[in-house]
Amino acid sequence: MEANKMFEVAVRNKFRYPYKGVIATEDLWDLSVQRLDDIFKTLKSQEKKAQEESLLNTRTPEDEALATKIEIIKHIVNTKLEEAKQAERAKENHDQKQKILGILAEKQDADLRNKTPEELQAMLNQLG
Length: 128
Description:
Elements: H1 3-12, E1 16-18, E2 22-24, H2 33-52, H3 61-113, H4 117-127
Antiparallel strand pairs: 1-2
């Protein structure tokens, strides 16, 4: 089921998840990946129990809701993990850029230090 459809089903059916009592779907985004994994384990346990209790292979509306809740948790965890990777890449890029700018400044300073007094005076005169 696509993400938009999943979340629409969750909102329309007012899905609640087991966490310190119960929480709504939108509250899942505020939880850490570890807390979401705890909820996932609880839901998977409920799913296994429901499968064990039935002799038939028919899926009830409750089974469908449980499966959708599990998929929502997976989606949110995957999204959070991807966002964390992107943030780490952005930090690494920023750090690398700062390092390059520092080295560039050092090289420019070294270039200035290597100029003759006459070249430096000419540069000063050009600046006004």
